[in-house]
Each structure stands twice: as C-alpha cells, then as structure tokens.
Amino acid sequence: MKKILVVGSVGLDDIETPSGKVERVPGGSAVYFSLAASMFSKVNFVGVAGEDFPKDVIALMNERGINTEGFEIAEGKTFRWSGRYHYDMDHRDTLLTELNVFENFRPVLPENYKNSEILFLGNIKPSLQLEVLERIINPELVISDTMNFWIDNAPEKLVEVVRKSDIFVINEDELKLMTGKPNFLSASDKMLEECSLLKALVVKMGKYGVYVTDGNEEFFLPAFPLRKIIDPTGAGDSFAGGFTGHLARSGDYSFSNIKKACVYGSITASYSVNNFSITGLKEFDHSIIDEEYERFRKMTTF
Ligand code: AMP
Fold it and tell me: What's the mean per-residue pLDDT of the chain?
C-alpha cells in the first residue's frame, strides 16, 4: 500500500442548498479528501486552520488513521467559504472567500512525510502546491486539483502545477474557464496539448459523471445514481479521495486501473453528498463498497 501526502484547504463553510442552510461547518479540500482517502489507504495531511477550527474534526481524522503531524493550528481565523447552490444542485455561486490563516501559511513537511509515494495537491493557492511539490522526494504519482478562484487569481502558477502533475482532476466548468474552450472535449484536447506530461485528465461533470482521457484512450462513467442530494460541497474532493485512495492501495497507475479508481471515487462522492459538510463521509461504511461497486458495474455494463 502506498502512502498519500495531501495538501489543501481546511475551512469553515456556510452552505445553502435547496435542502437547507448551515453555518461555519467543517470543510476544505484537504479535510474532505483525507476522510475519503483514509477508507482506502494511509494519508499524511498538510494544512492549516485557525484556533476556531473544531478539535473534534482533527480527532475524527486521527481515528481514521490520518497522520496530522503536518496539520498546523495558527493564530487567527480559519479559511472561510460560503456558497449557494441552484435548484438542480449542479451549479453554485460562491458568496464569500476569506483566506485568513492561509495568507501567511508556509507548508512544513514532517520528515516522515517526505517519502510518501503519492502526492495529492488539493485545491489551494497554486504557489503552495508548488512548494509542497518541491519538498517531497521523488513521488511516484502527482495528482492535482483546483477551483475557479485560483484559475482567476493565479493562472500562470496553476499551469505550472498542472505541467508538473501526472493526473489533473478538474470539473467541466473550470476546465472550460481555464482553457477558454466552450466544449469539454476540445477543452480536454487543449489541456493535454499544453500539459504534455499528463498521463490522465479527469473531468468531473456533476450528475453526468466523469470523463477521463490520456489523449489516446477515453472513458466515460455516469455518476452513481442518487435519489436525494443534500449537499454537493466536497463531492469533488471526496471523488478525488476515493480515486487516489484506490490507486494508492493497488499501486497500479495504469489507465485501466484509473478507470476503476473513478468507480471508487464516484461511490465515495455519493456518500459525501448524502448530508451536509463531512457528515456523509463520517457515515461512509467501507464494508459495503464492494457491493456498491458490483451494483455500479451491473448498471453500466451492456
Ligand atoms: P468542492 O465542492 O469539492 O469543490 O470543494 C468545496 C470545498 O472547497 C469547501 O469545503 C471549501 O471550504 C473549499 N474551498 C472553496 N474555495 C476554495 C479556494 N479558493 N481554495 C481552497 N479551498 C476552497
């Protein structure tokens, strides 16, 4: 089993969906990602929160075997984000982004993190993603993710991150924004052309599922069908957690295993959206994942 080092955001979110409204609930790309990935593999966590971040979340992460030596609690307030979802839950508006303790964060990697085989650069300021990339020793696999905020605010640094990655996970709207192409296939072509070292580009398409290509092979997987979605926040990070977790536990980074990783990622994300904040992931029961995998296989094979 390979070890995953994750760097990303730790946040307190205000979320409004057609199902309800919550305030100052735990979130952040690295929190969702690590809770999801820890169901499959060993996770070393790097991130920062302020003194107002709930300690029971860190305790939960430790219970799940996540190494939080690199989780810094800094003086000041935790990163804040607020979003409102549209009726179909596929689109959302960001109402607020406050970087707070992120402004001055310098990631420090504990010595025993440096030989992590897989690096996941979660959604965070691209210059911080690059700093972590420079400090880890010869990772076998680098996977990165981002969000519209960084595409708008740090486009050059972000392209540098993707150029140094093996796999880039991005949602469809953000891929279109980043490439300036209005169609996801032509946007994918442009991304692969500009970042020629990418072994796979994973395009998340909300309820339509996920599209993966290496420029040669292609794979399309629908989203795991759900009757009710409470809160889509963190779906992308939970997908990435299940996806990366499967690659880490198998140690196989081939395109055919990347397809399976998408299945595990989709199942994991389906748990995350079952409830607000990280509650859905808390309830994620790993013992039934093989059953869900089999159900998914039957639904998508013809
Ligand atoms: P997702 O729904 O998977 O895109 O991720 C949502 C999470 O990303 C929320 O919990 C937010 O706290 C976090 N987030 C929102 N904006 C940013 C940003 N600009 N940088 C890093 N994390 C963010």
Answer: 95
CATH superfamily of 3-299: Ribokinase (3.40.1190.20)
27 CA to centre of ligand 1 in angstroms: 7
Query: Whole-prediction pTM value?
Result: 0.96
Is the shortest distance between the CB of 149 and ligand 1 below 6 Å? yes
Tens of pLDDT, residues 30-80: 999 999 999 999 999 999 999 999 999 999 999 999 999 999 999 999 999
196 vs 188: CA distance, rounded Å: 12
> What's the gap in Å between 208 CA and the centre of ligand 1?
21
